[in-house]
Amino acid sequence: MTLDVESTMALAEDEPAVATFLEEHGGRVDHSDVAVEDGIRWVSLHPRAEPQECFVARLAWSIYPHRPPSIAFCDGVGGPTNVMGAWPRIPGYRAPNDICMPFTAEGFALHPDWANGPNGWRPSPNPYLRVVTQLQDDLDYRCTGRCK
Amino acid sequence: MTAAAVGPHPDLIKAIVSFSFSEKPPFDKLFTGETTAGTVLTEAMVYFEAQPEPGHDYYLTHDRERVQNSATLGSLRHHDHELTFRMVKEIPQG
Questions:
Q1: How far apart are CA A1 and CA A38, in angstroms?
Q2: CA atoms within 13 A on the CB side of B39
Q3: CATH architecture of structural domain B10-90
Q4: Beta-carbon count within 10 A of A106 CB
Q5: For the whole model, what pTM was predicted?
Q6: Parallel, antiparallel or unpaired: strands B27-32 and B65-67
Q7: How far apart are CA B79 and CA B86, in angstroms?
Q8: Cβ of B84 under 8 Å from any chain A Cβ?
Q9: Contact A35, A41 (CB under 8 A)
């Protein structure tokens, strides 16, 4: 799916803050020219307790910033998403399929009731940063290792 | 008079709290070193209009460590008079 021009521009505008946050936490964001148009980003993250471990999350935005991204962990940047060992063990992260929490497309699809109330998707401020922050916090405070 | 005593508020610590769910700029306020992180969290939640609700706990982090509400600002700071926190909202899982 190709991202529309407005979404592409909005995503690019919000990305520097994400890159800064990731750098501060030892991570990084990657994309290819094709992936930019497709709204896909690969985010490399390191848990605080095990900084030598690296988890790569694939974020696929359909409409930015108005829809949550589809998120899956993959076996390296551009790698497959169906590898158990690529996923962290975190409650709500259902390796190797999806993340059932109110910051992913998959979570909202399974729980339409989340759309309203405190769990509803917020298009501002900078949801790209909020999603990446959520992933980092989950790795830092809720992760119990790597799936096998 | 020691160098540390020079200045308008030598015993106060500036707590700065950011919250990724809010449009507002970070909360910042001067507190004494005896103030607990729980007090800072409570004031930050009021500032950010974050409502306590079932399944939505809030906590502070500092230097990538979760801060216990009972910790005092004096115990968290090292040499400077400023502490930067992130307020984290725990969200539910499906």
A1: 6
A2: 12
A3: Roll (3.10)
A4: 19
A5: 0.90
A6: unpaired
A7: 20
A8: no
A9: yes
Looking up tokens 């949550």, which residue turns up? A68
What is the identity of the amino acid at A18?
V
Does residue B53 sit at the A interface (CB-CB below 8 Å)?
yes
Nearest to A22 by CA among A44, A47, A41: A44
Tell whether A102 lies on the interface with B, counting CB pairs under 8 A: yes
CB-closest option in B65, B86, B92 to A119: B92
Each of the 148 residues of chain A gets a pLDDT tens digit; together they read 688 999 999 999 999 999 999 999 999 999 876 666 689 999 999 999 999 999 999 999 999 999 999 999 999 999 999 999 999 999 999 999 999 999 999 999 999 999 988 889 999 999 999 999 999 999 999 999 999 9
Closest by Cα among B30, B79, B66 to A139 = B66
| Cβ pair A134:B91 closer than 8 A | yes
Q: Which residue of chain A comes nearest to B25, CA vs CA?
A: A125
Q: Where are the domains of chain B?
A: 10-90
| Dist CA B81 CA A140 (whole Å) | 26
Question: Are the CB atoms for B85 and B16 separated by under 8 Å?
Answer: yes
Q: Mutate which of A48, A122, A137, A139 to test chain B, going by most B C-beta atoms within 10 A?
A: A137
H helix runs in chain A, sequence order: 5-24, 33-38, 105-110, 127-141
Specify the DSSP element, H or E, that contains B59: strand B58-62
**End-to-end CA gap in chain A:** 31
